Amino acid sequence: MSHRATNWAIQQRGLAPATKLVLWHLCDRHNPDYGCFPSQDQLAADAEISRASLNVHLDKLEQAGLIRRERRHSEGAHRRQSTRYFLAFEPEFSAQAELPLAAENRPDPCPECRHGNGQKPCPDFAKSHVQNLDNNPVSKEPVITTARDAGATREGPADASTYDEGPDLDAAEAACLAACGEGMAPAARAAIIATTATIGAWLAASYDLELDVLPVIAERTAKPRGSPIRTWDYFSQAIAARHAKRIAQAARPKGAGEAGAGPAVTPEDRLARLAAWLNSGAYVPPSAVTNTQRDALLRAGLVTEAALRAHQIY
């Protein structure tokens, strides 16, 4: 492990969270004396992604000028050796890097493996190339993509769908990182981006980014911490509680003397609103439902016992 390499990775900007995570793990495998030679399987396991996805992110890093790959093979044989990764801060990166050729001047790629360097023949390399997709979904553990798989607490949405990276999710995470104060150390920032799916689960649960999420993150990271925060799920319970309180206050009827006071809310209306909240899938604190309300909801057939048990209301 090279502290200089990992610190350099943390300082890079303008990368998608998953791409930056791959860069950080790549730097974590860097040895200041010998260089960087991690296998594709090792990097994929570190980043918890498939080898095909890993190679996509490596291509992005190479196009951004942050890494350079040197594929090697043993002399007199077609056996591939581990790829040598040159990082942009290393002297060897600029000393050995060649300027890219214009498209019209590039040599034709090898028809078997499409290395693009004119080497022929290399039929054995094609079968072991890192771009080959994983074709055995049972042999590897699934990549964590949902809040439930990531170990979300009961306060988070239990049935969140799978969230792929996209502009909305990237923007939401960027806002969350910007809201973090001194309590989110640089090393914690590099680790926490591996749990971006939790932010997608917050959005799916209708937690408001500006009113629910960002204030909690800012409050809980305002001061330096002794133990680092390494997952967005650390904030889930507090965000869910803030959201529930805000919704309850919004549903509270205004007094007769308040401006804009509407018609009186009947007990039936309150039960209907409470049932809608319970059936929405959002977090409901067990203390929000009294025993009397629980019995009335069941008698009216507005909720089921299973729905109440899911919120730990018995």
Please tell me about this protein's structure.
It is a single chain. The protein has 14 helices and two strands. The chain has 314 residues and is mostly helical. The protein has three domains: 3-97, Arc Repressor Mutant, subunit A; 144-252, no CATH class; 256-314, no CATH class. The protein has a two-stranded antiparallel ribbon. Strand 1 (67-73) and strand 2 (80-87) form a beta hairpin. Helix 1 packs antiparallel against helix 2. The radius of gyration is 26 Å and the shape is elongated. The chain starts with a helix and ends with a helix. Mean pLDDT is 75; it is low at 97-166.
Structural class: mainly alpha
Identify low-pLDDT runs: 97-166
- How much strand content do the residues show? under 5%
Strand order of the largest sheet: 1-2
What is the CA-based Rg, rounded?
Answer: 26 Å
**What is the mean pLDDT?**
75
**Between the first and last Cα atoms, what is the distance in angstroms?**
51 Å
DSSP strand tally = 2
The number of distinct helices, counting runs of at least 4 residues, comes to: 14
Elements, N to C (H/E):
HHHHEEHHHHHHHHHH
Number of domains: 3
Largest sheet: 2 strands, antiparallel
Shape summary: elongated
Percent of residues in helices? 40-55%
